[in-house]
Specification:
With 147 residues, this protein is mainly alpha-helical. 70% of the residues lie in helices and 8% in strands. It contains 6 helices and 3 strands. The protein has helices at residues 2-24, 31-43, 49-56, 60-72, 96-114, 120-146, and strands spanning 47-48, 76-80, 88-92. It has a 3-stranded antiparallel β-sheet with strand order 1-3-2. Strand 2 and strand 3 (88-92) form a beta hairpin. Helix 1 (2-24) runs antiparallel to helix 5 and helix 2 (31-43) crosses helix 3 (49-56).
Amino acid sequence: MHQNIGFRLSRLPRLWRAIIDRRLAPLGLTQTRWITLYHLWRLGDGQPQCDLARAIGVEAPSLVRTLDQLSEQGLIERCPCEQDRRTKRVFLTEAATPLLEQIDEVVTQARREMLGGLSEAEIHQLDTLLEHIENNGLAIQSRESDG
């Protein structure tokens, strides 16, 4: 049984995103675009590009193309940081708000369905367990990168 946990943990995010991707496809959003918009919305306006990339889990140069596309669509603006002109901060435009509300609706519904049949206590316990596993992984990663 323990051997399957890692496989389940790796399959679950792909399954979750595939469900959301299919539901967001009619809005013309690729996974990269909706994830970028959604993270920016959750993190708050004015995120430095590098912080946004880190939160999403991609390299900063990889994010630039997506940000260019979102900017062309009028959904974000990039402005130089006042403290460091080399850094660009990313802001959502007013045009992004209705789209983000639709994304949030889809994500919330998918979450509700994926967690269907679990009590609030079980969901809390699951979250606690996943956090514990993540912290163990981060500790291993830190230990191995120091060595």
